[in-house]
Design goal:
Length: 377
Amino acid sequence: MSPEQIAEIRAAARHQDWHDVRHRLAEFARSFDGAPAEPLTPELRLAEADAMRGQGDLAAASAAYERLADGGHGRWSARAIHGLGACHLEVGSHERAAQLAQMAMDQSPDDHGLMERGRILFARAGARTDLPAATSYLQNALSRSVTPGSARAHGRLVLGDMFLLAGAHGRALREIRLARADARALDAPRTLADALRLEAEMYVRLGDQAKIGAAMRELVHAENLYRGIGDQGICALLLCRGNAHRALGQNRMAERELMRASVLASGAQNQIIHAHALLALADLARVSGDPDPEKLRRASAIYRRISHERGIHYCHLLLGLGAASAGRPEVAAQAFASVAAHADATPQIFTDADRRLVSEAAAGSLDSRPIAFAFLI
């Protein structure tokens, strides 16, 4: 492969254009026309694995990362370990993701870009079990950042998401918009699309219908960005748009988008988005007066399989609401008490907003109101 071809693939990877990376590598492979292909360098093998992960082919990406991680290729092996950790996080294995993030950083402490990405992955994994500690860790990591670029923009986005979950909406919006500005300046389309989507999600959670409407127009741009680079973020975008339609009372459109998110996420092996979409569909059915226990059961099964505490919490909440609507107040009261006790006992996971939601459910104020579920990206 010529230096010019390598430079083009590097540029495509840097700009998060997974379509272009895989297209150029496939063209290179075809150029041998049946002859033994020139082996790819570790750098290009890593770019190919990153593109596979970006496009949602997690099984192939994980296998590619594992081969590269075992090859003794210095910083490329360390970066492959990080990529493998990111794959684990995508399927809900947050403990293993944190271990691999730390392993990658330990193996290549002089690679500043990897250190930054490793800290972000470590924080994302840790937020599943201790949100305040993960937020503090990431704030400290970003304050020591020495590597400008898309990694720092992504870090700001993740920090904004953590602030959003904690209810610090002003700080969340500041970080999201800084991430968006950085992503535009760096020509990082995936990070820009994520920022546009996360701001829309914030307005959905706040129930700000005027801003939801404006944000929906930005989601069209985000969708074009995801599709342009072939990124699996399209699953999360469809979920976001479905939840936005739920918040606006546009139930038919909400069902269509949530079903698309569910099917696409299932096919892409993205268990978390699949479960979130099923949960939202179950809540939509509840509000519409036509409960769908099967969707709730399937969502609960996924959450339990990956020990996703927030998902399990919401499933129990919907079970309580279902019991109340079915005229079983004692069962509902028991369910709400259990959910509230669990939230009170684990403040490192659940926030004041989560506890208020349980109180509203027990008081009957959610009987005809959709729930704005709050999850980390």
